[in-house]
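Review box. Two proteins, two foldings.
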Amino acid sequence: MRGDRGSGTRARSGRGPGGVSSGRDGPSRIGHHRGMSSAAEISSLSSTLAELHERVTAMAEGALSSGDEDMAHELIAVERALGGALRRLRRFSQGSNR
């Protein structure tokens, strides 16, 4: 039963991953970012995504060095997707500052 604790908490709080409210009409506002401007929020998202990208890269390298090829393969795919998302977000951010 302890393994179900996280999902039970999410259902009671009404919030999904990242603090996004998941009401009947779908995701609404993001918890602590409500007062941020769009540019500030994009900058914050870029920083968070860059950190996540670095963590996944480190995990992929660790999986490769330990010989866990299946995990490494999946993590490399995630790393590529995160890298692409980060590039798109940064490109959008730079274009909206002009």
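Next protein.
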Amino acid sequence: MGVRHGRCAVVRRLHSDRPGYRIRGTRCLPALVRNRGSRQLAGCNPYRRPHLRAGPAFPGQWILYQRAQRRRSDRPALIFAITSALGWRSAFFVLGGGGVLWFSVWVLSTASPKLEPVWHDDPREGDAPKEKLARIIVQIIGSPRFLPVLVVAVLINPCLYFSVNWLPTYFAQQHGLLPGSQLGWILTAIYLGVGVGNFLCGAGVLTLTRRGRPLAAARRTVFLLATVPLSICAAVPLMRLSPAVFALVAVNIGLGIWVAMYLTMVQDVSAAHVSTALGLLSGCGSLAGAVAMWAVGRVTQHTHSFALPMAAFSVSAVISAIAGWAASRETSLKGGTV
């Protein structure tokens, strides 16, 4: 009893000044519960409603959050190092400068006559009558590949949002990791997995096609292999800290492959209106992601466990693989290789 009260006092002292942070009840006993042999902080969630803050400036939101709190956090290690050495404002300039440099290198590397059709419209299309947006959307929805790719969008997007928004809370509740450099390095390793997966997606498909496999078959092989690490997410709540970190790195590598693969699937829905198809499908995926993140918050608040959300993550990956197989099979049946 004394240890439990002492732990609770430390938690209160560390986080009593954090907005949105509260410990249920006036006594300390509800603050620590046992769930499947793991201590968790019940109701102690400093990342309140993270799904409402997700967006293209996700690293920036944590910089501002920690600036408001005036204490170190679970920021990814790169941002942690920059803000520690140069101040919190410098992280925006350094990361923004890196983006400008990356964009410049990308523009120069793609300035090839072979890619001119990508950057410039065909002059012969200037005199063609413009299609109405409603007609374009009807054509996209009528595509035989639309429904399976839509299933992929509404399942893979929530998985990505879950990884970005809820993993810090998972480590805080499941393993008792308070914000600090250790959690920052853990999240850095995990989120780098997404970038590695993006690279492996293209590299894997390219390698298989160069060895003579059809493009559709190469894509199927790659996303089916990526589904394997995603399926182990259901077992993560049962793992200790070190195995859980390695498992989540593998999960995010598979997730990175799937995110890149989803973007290639969109091109198969409508080769003539890729941007419109992407906007329609990704909009549905984002809406599903927002609802899913709200549901994760409700479930973890009532159960104090991530077992159900992570099981749903694995099930979503398997269903996405089935839908992706249907989409790629449709391509191969028609003899196409796009």
